[in-house]
Backbone:
């Protein structure tokens, strides 16, 4: 029991190798070539860039916004009650990883063209506070009895796909305005998608009658054999299965010499899942259990078992989802950014960013303030502060090193997690390496007059 | 198809587990300390929403016994046959035998020997046996039966002739007659002839004490040269009436006394009630009589007793004794139907349920022809299908008050708490929402094998059910909710482990019964009961 509990706690604390797109520390920081993945309105700083296969870009994020290790364990004492008390109503485990299979960018005058492919895995598991309260306190606890315990946010979502993209951007108005777009062809592998989840449990304070209500729509391509049947054919972009599209749109506008406004809408689209596609739908339903029928019990004292069987039959009937095979649409996890940049001088920049990140139809907000400084001609270092969901403080840091034709970059959105992992629930990492040709100095940057 | 795994949910899941495993072991889990897990689980155990019929049906198959008036007031209505009489129980013509030997006188013998011959030409009468014997029978028609006439020639002379019933005719109105002949008959040999009495009519001659049947003889005797006639027994005649069933009978049947044993009506609704008073504001008893006997009857309910089998308490009810029936007027007419109604005005029937009875006993005494013989042109009659049926119809409007109605039930139980070591205590909650004007105080006593009380659910009987609030008419207009909580902790549970029996004691009282306030039981009353439990867990996390 103790180890089981510990495992559950640690899983919640640490998450795993999946990630969510919460990165903001290099959003709109245009020293990295792959900025086009955050704002397609980027021309790049080099004439040609090619990311090294696999190493061209690795993002891995794990976020748990429920509690931290220190919240849960103090001096080897597991504080389950207080930890549950401080949970949000809905707590999320967010995972996101993306691996750049290859990418390249080419700048031709005021135009920039790029393309590439990446493999993406995204997941969100959401558990409601009330569920943990129920498990720890019991439905008869004074805090819970008489109120509807809302398990509505309960959701399990995961999606894996390969993303093939091409993009273009163009600068206008003497480089004061840049517009860009990327088009993604999404090749889905598998998905578990909780489209709707609404569950509740109410215990009547007078009679202890239990009322369960709920509705859900779960869509998936995963069955018990799915993991064993994954095939290389899944990578074939032309296999015709689980195809989708998404679009990136971006704009950069330098409205004063030192001030720049950026905005982008990324990965807006979806995938139509049709291989092994199943939907499980439970219409809005409700079931109340008042106890055994006293009258029946008096007449027939041996009816307990039969009555309980009837209750279970009714319960399973009420909550039996309709299983239906057939394709369905699932939205891609879009991201929306709005940034305001202030270029104090050539080596010091300040960037304020607001982001709204979608994860399987749930939104997450973030604001950040980033400062970057250029050391010499080859090294950019970034740091700042981020408020994820406006209440989780993150300390993003990162660097980009241009060593000759090799561009190397890494960073994290939360340095705190690196040296004090017990105090944070956000673990992120970013790594990239690529080759660039036509370095900064050879690329003419024009500033508005 | 070539399978190739790549970065997939499977790999991600394995990575997750490896990471979790590494982290788990780096945290020295064995040294972690946990608070005890103390969930409070609330579960509904049982419920019911009783209506009036459910409540009263607990003790009776009462659905058909409850009636509702136009205002919704309930009444108990017991109906049943109280007494029933038929012809067989009043009059009977038993099997009977008449034997007569004809004798030759010396003169008749010498006359026969002289060749002149002799004859029996006479009429004799024998009595018709009937029970009771003082009944005057004017006419009786038989539904079935047999008459056998046997004769035995005792002297070897030549006999020829017939015997005719003077007041017995067949269904064609022909007098019943039998032939007698010695031809082919040996002396001493008995010859029997039978006649089916179905449809035959007998009109006995009543001599003031007996009903007489006449036999007319017409028998000639001539000489047999081989035999010498002597004075003495010559011919034996025997008449048997058997298996008589009367179709109808008329006459005067006298002042028959009909006394019944006690019969009873069981008031099942009070079966489980040990003691207490249930006072009604009014009660009604109707005796519905259907009489197809053609004779006047006076009858009385002399012994009506409300009896409590548990306590032996009984109350005598007084009913009028001059209940008169005129009788069916015509033999083939319609039965007389009469209803005798009793209520607060003419009896103390209102005391019927005080104390709460289990059985109400009735005994009936009746006398026919209380005024003596009927006019000659209006004789008594009884048909084979005549009946005197007395049905009872008891109507008890549930309008009154109840005091200290005591119910006790004993249950065999086997309480075992050992299986619930992780339970600190259990808190039982009984919630009632009572729309009846009755309060129920309950106590539950736990007995060990020696029937010695070891504990009780409450310190003293607790009001599990509070009476609904009534308006000025005694009708509940506001149901009242009540909640009782009973906690069983480990110590109590250990003590209850020796329980062998549970005795449930309930005392019911209507609201304000100390003032004898009348309440009414309406058909829309309901009693909702919810029984739930809170289980306080205490689970050590190890």
Residues:
């Amino acid at each position: 029991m103790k180890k089981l509990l510990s495992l559950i706690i640690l899983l919640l604390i640490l998450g795993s190798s999946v990630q969510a797109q919460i990165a903001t520390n290099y959003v709109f920081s245009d020293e990295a070539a792959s900025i086009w993945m955050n704002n397609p309105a980027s021309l790049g700083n080099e004439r040609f860039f090619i990311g090294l296969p696999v190493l061209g870009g690795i993002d891995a994020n794990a976020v748990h916004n429920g509690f931290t290790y220190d919240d849960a364990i103090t001096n080897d004492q597991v504080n389950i009650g207080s930890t549950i008390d401080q949970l949000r109503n809905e707590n999320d485990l967010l995972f996101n990883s993306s691996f750049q299979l290859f990418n390249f960018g080419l700048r031709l005058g005021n135009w920039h063209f790029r393309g590439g492919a990446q493999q993406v895995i995204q997941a969100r598991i959401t558990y409601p506070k009330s569920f943990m309260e129920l498990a720890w306190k019991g439905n008869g606890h004074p805090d819970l009895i008489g109120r509807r315990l809302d398990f509505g946010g309960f959701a399990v979502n995961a999606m894996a796909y390969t993303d093939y993209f091409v993009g273009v951007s163009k600068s206008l108005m003497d480089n004061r305005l840049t517009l860009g777009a990327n088009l993604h062809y999404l090749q889905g592998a598998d998905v578990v998608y909780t489209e709707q989840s609404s569950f509740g449990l109410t215990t009547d304070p007078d009679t202890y009658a239990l009322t369960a209500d709920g509705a859900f729509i779960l869509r998936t391509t995963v069955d018990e054999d799915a993991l064993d049947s994954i095939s290389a054919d899944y990578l074939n972009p032309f296999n015709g299965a689980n195809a989708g599209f998404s679009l990136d749109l971006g704009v950069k506008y330098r409205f004063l010499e030192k001030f720049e406004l950026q905005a982008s809408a990324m990965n807006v689209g979806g995938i139509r899942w049709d291989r092994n596609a199943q939907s499980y739908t439970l219409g809005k339903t409700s079931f109340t259990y008042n106890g055994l029928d006293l009258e029946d019990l008096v007449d027939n004292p041996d009816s307990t078992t039969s009555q309980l069987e009837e209750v279970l039959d009714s319960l399973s009937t009420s909550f039996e989802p309709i299983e239906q095979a057939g394709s369905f649409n699932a939205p891609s996890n879009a991201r929306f950014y709005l940034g305001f940049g202030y270029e104090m001088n050539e080596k010091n920049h300040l960037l304020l960013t607001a982001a709204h990140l979608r994860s399987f139809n749930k939104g997450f907000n973030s604001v950040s303030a980033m400062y970057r400084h250029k050391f010499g001609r080859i090294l950019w270092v970034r740091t700042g502060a981020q408020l994820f969901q406006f209440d989780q403080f993150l300390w993003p840091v990162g660097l980009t090193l241009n060593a000759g034709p090799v561009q190397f970059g890494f960073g994290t959105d939360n340095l705190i997690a690196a040296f004090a992992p017990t105090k944070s629930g956000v673990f992120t990492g970013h790594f990239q390496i690529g080759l660039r040709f036509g370095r900064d100095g050879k690329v003419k940057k024009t500033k508005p007059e | 198809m070539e399978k190739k795994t790549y970065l997939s949910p499977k790999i991600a899941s394995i990575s997750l587990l490896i990471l979790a495993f590494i982290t788990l072991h780096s945290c020295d889990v064995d040294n972690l300390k946990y608070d005890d897990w103390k969930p409070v689980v609330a579960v509904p155990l049982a419920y019911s929403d009783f209506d009036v019929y459910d409540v009263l049906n607990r003790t009776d198959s009462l659905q058909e016994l409850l009636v509702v008036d136009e205002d919704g007031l309930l009444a108990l209505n017991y109906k049943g046959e109280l007494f029933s009489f038929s012809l067989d129980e009043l009059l009977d013509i038993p099997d009977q035998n008449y034997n007569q030997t004809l004798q030759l006188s010396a003169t008749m013998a010498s006359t026969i020997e002289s060749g002149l011959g002799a004859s029996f030409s006479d009429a004799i009468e024998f009595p018709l046996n009937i029970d009771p014997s003082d009944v005057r029978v004017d006419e009786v028609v038989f539904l079935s039966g047999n008459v056998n006439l046997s004769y035995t020639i005792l002297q070897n002379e030549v006999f020829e002739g017939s015997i005719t019933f003077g007041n017995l005719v067949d269904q064609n109105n022909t007098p019943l007659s039998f032939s007698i002949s010695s031809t082919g008959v040996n002396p001493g040999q008995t010859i029997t002839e039978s006649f089916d009495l179905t449809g035959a009519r007998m009109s006995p001659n009543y001599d003031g004490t007996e009903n007489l049947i006449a036999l007319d003889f017409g028998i000639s005797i001539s000489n047999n040269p081989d035999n010498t006639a002597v004075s003495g027994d010559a011919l034996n005649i025997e008449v048997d009436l058997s298996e008589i069933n009367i179709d109808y009978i008329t006459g005067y049947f006298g002042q028959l006394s009909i006394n019944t044993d006690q019969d009873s009506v069981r008031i099942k609704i009070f079966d489980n009630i040990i003691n207490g008073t249930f006072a009604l504001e009014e009660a009604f008893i109707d005796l519905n009589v259907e009489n197809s006997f053609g004779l006047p009857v006076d009858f009385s309910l002399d012994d009506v007793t409300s009896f409590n089998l548990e306590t032996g308490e009984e109350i005598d009810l007084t009913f009028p004794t001059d209940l008169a029936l005129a009788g069916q007027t015509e033999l083939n007419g319609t039965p007389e139907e009469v209803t005798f109604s009793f209520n607060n005005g003419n009896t103390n029937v209102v005391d019927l349920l005080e104390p709460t009875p289990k059985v109400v006993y009735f005994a009936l005494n009746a006398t026919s022809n209380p005024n003596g013989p009927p006019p000659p042109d209006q004789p008594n009659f009884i048909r084979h299908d005549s009946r005197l049926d007395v049905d009872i119809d008891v109507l008890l409007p549930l309008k009154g008050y109840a005091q200290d109605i005591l119910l006790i039930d004993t249950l065999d139980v086997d309480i075992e708490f050992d299986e619930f070591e992780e339970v600190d205590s259990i808190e039982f909650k009984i919630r009632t929402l009572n729309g009846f004007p009755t309060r129920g105080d309950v106590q539950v006593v736990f007995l060990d094998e020696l029937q010695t009380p070891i504990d009780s659910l409450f310190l003293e009987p607790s009001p599990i059910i509070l009476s609904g609030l009534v308006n000025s008419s005694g009708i509940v207009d506001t149901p009242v909710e009540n909640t009782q909580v009973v906690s069983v902790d480990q110590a109590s549970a250990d003590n209850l482990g020796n329980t062998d029996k549970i005795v449930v004691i309930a005392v019911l009282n209507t609201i304000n019964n100390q003032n004898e306030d009348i309440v009414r039981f309406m058909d829309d009353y309901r009693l909702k009961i919810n029984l739930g439990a809170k289980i306080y867990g205490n689970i050590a996390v190890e």
Summary: The longest strand of chain B covers residues 232-252. The CA atoms of residues 126 and 292 of chain B lie 32 Å apart. The radius of gyration of chain B is 43 Å.
